[in-house]
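Figure S4 source data
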Amino acid sequence: MTAGEEIHSGACLCGAVRYRVAGPLEPVVGCHCTMCRKQTGHFLASTSVAMEDLVIEGPDSLRWYASSDFARRGFCGVCGSVLFWQSDKRSRIAIAMGGFDGPTGVTWDKHIFVADKGDYYEIEGDAPIFDRRRPKGADA
């Protein structure tokens, strides 16, 4: 991390896993897939960052769960806080928005996998909604 970079920090609930991001945060994606809902108890709101912009402190407390054949989910092994989602095919990592220490300045980009969303809530706001992932070739 170099001087003058925007730095965002965050942690799990108990503080055993902390992280810092130097560089831009992508707009927020709400994932309503069944796996995200089961892991979080609602849906996952996350940003994404380049792996080289992320520094994890307390990696001994970080646990990874291979939730599919292409991705894993990172959580605190002490308090269970949901922290990360990482695809095997991307050089970026998703970070749960609730763990950031302060304001991030990011806004909603889209909601994905809404075909799997819970029946007890409605999606509000103007962010685009996709039944699954964003269709290939779709604009922002």
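Figure S5 source data
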Amino acid sequence: MSKKIVWIINQYAATPNEGIGGRSYYFSESLSSIDVEVYLISASYTHLLRKPPKINKSIELIKLKENFNFVWLKVPSYTESHSKQRIINWFIFAAKILKLKS
């Protein structure tokens, strides 16, 4: 039987290094411990991140553990949580999700 692959998509997910981790991160970690290959997909910038990652490519994959992959999708930053740039950020994130391949 082949290994199951799960994509968890949460624009506001983060690792404990960049943000607060959160349920998506810890759920991904738990799934990976039962031999599921997990891809947690998030935006490279949100107003909730303490330390946004430095992303050079449009899509940056970071292998955190054997079966746990964190995928940052590069999106533009914005100045405040109620800005129009944040809405643009949402649409760019959604468009990049559609371009991902398994």
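The longest strand covers residues 37-43. The first helix runs from residue 22 to 33.
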